Amino acid sequence: MIKNYIKIAFRNLRKNKIDSAISIGGLAVGLACCILLVFYVRFEWSHDNFHENADRIYRVTDQSENPSTGEVYKSLTTPYPLAAVLDSTFPQAEYVLNIVKGPVDIKENDKFIQQVVTFSDPGFFDTFTFPILHGNSSTPLENPDNIVLTKEAALRYFGTTNVVGQSLTIRLNKEEYVLTVSAVTQNIAKNSSIKFDMVLPLENYFRNESPENRKMMRETWYIGFG
């Protein structure tokens, strides 16, 4: 019986070739779009789920209102002093971190090349699950003269991955500093909202500013940071 149904179906397909091609093509395109949509939504919903403490990590955002128009502004940046206030006000918070991106001149093949890097407070790798392949897995950012590289960055600068103890020369505010690689992490997953090739202790971010700007950024509440 099923064999007869299949024969009849093929006969109808051969008899109405154009209509069959349009119907089958439309069905194939529809299924392909549906599958792609499912994969896209699944990928978007998976962002940052790989962190072991994903359900306990929160990002603080800023919201302000224009008093004359009532228009509300939302921003991902917050003032630098806020972290210290949150840390002292909410003792249940294990880590309160400032994370910011900024340009750094990195010495590569006897030339300084500008790269955008990530700066963070010491608790970065305690808060987020970025697997460390080599080196200090507990406090890799405790020393201001340390630097953490991804596996990809280690290969780029040194040609190998286990480069703990090796040095990179950077330039901040026209001053040169020699940083020591304290750890090497696995390459960052594509579904991570935090992406980096290297992480430097936050103190290096302020080294890149003039003394006046450092004081202003550390103390004022009206400058976005992050």
Structure description:
The chain has 226 residues and is of the alpha+beta class. The protein has helices at residues 2-15, 17-45, 81-89, 124-127, 151-158, 203-207, 211-219, and strands at residues 62-65, 72-75, 99-108, 111-120, 132-135, 146-150, 167-172, 175-185, 198-201. The longest helix is centred in the N-terminal third of the chain and has 29 residues, at 17-45. It is extended.
Q: What's the main sheet like?
A: 6 strands, mixed, barrel
**Which value, in Å, is the CA radius of gyration?**
26 Å
What order do the SSEs take from the amino end to the carboxyl end, as H and E? HHEEHEEHEEHEEEHH
- Provide the helix percentage: 25-40%
Strand order of the largest sheet: 3-4-9-6-8-7
The shape, in one word, is extended
Distance from N terminus to C terminus (CA atoms, Å) equals 69 Å
Structural class of the helices, strands and pairings? alpha+beta
How many individual β-strands? 9
